[in-house]
Amino acid sequence: MVSKLDASKFKSASLEKETRFRVQNIMGYVITCYNQMINEGMVYSKTESLNEAKTRINLEEYLTEMFVNTYLTKWNNIQDYFNSNITGVNSAKTFIYFNYEPKQTYNENGTRKDDYIDIKINDSVLSTIWGSVEQQQIHMAIECKVIDNGYSQYVSDIEKMCNRNYNTPRLPFEGQIGYIINPKYTHTSVSNGIKNALTNQAGTITTISTLIPIPYEIHPDFDASYLSKHKRNHGTNDEFSIYHLLFNYTKIVVE
User: Fold this and answer.
1) φ, ψ for residue 123 (rounded to 5)?
2) Which of 95, 152, 89, 145 is nearest to 119 (CA)?
3) Model confidence at 135, in pLDDT bands (50, 70, 90)?
């Protein structure tokens, strides 16, 4: 039986508030790790991301793997951020795990298919918030894309979130990271480009609100965050929100 998050249950004001707060905690941690990477002057070469045959650059996968393994899963980072700095409803001791490209299945036209989540987050606080509602562990997903020449691939991940009928629960909040490697781009120009691309995809993506800037809302030292809201294209057409983090990788990625 396919497990779904019941949107009517999510209408509880307290449930929504607690979930949103925790999701913002997690996105704030992701930003903290990005800022640490910037402060350390980390540099990655495109040649390091070549496949075994040296015929294709797997840059998105490489950057995401490095970000997860070098920063997000670092024990001291997790302890310092979640168990020292978080207060209020989410202040209980945290057990949080970041996984790179685990598999999740979905149904398409009656066929079971595989999908690989760029960053899957299993979090004890989110599971506690939703456990009594769903009787199943809840995870959060973040999709990642390199932004170098246009925005079609980034928007394709939004379309995927709208279309795919996953076999395990997905929160009404998703995350996206854009690795901006084109020095001609800024997070403002990228967000505007994504907005225009979403307008052109109106037939397949129902956008309720498009990339609203939320500077410093989820982290006091980061102004390139945005929030959008869309509808699923299956089931009861539930609404869901996406937190967008547009990371400047122009000095991080070199030839």
Assistant:
1) -130, 130
2) 145
3) low
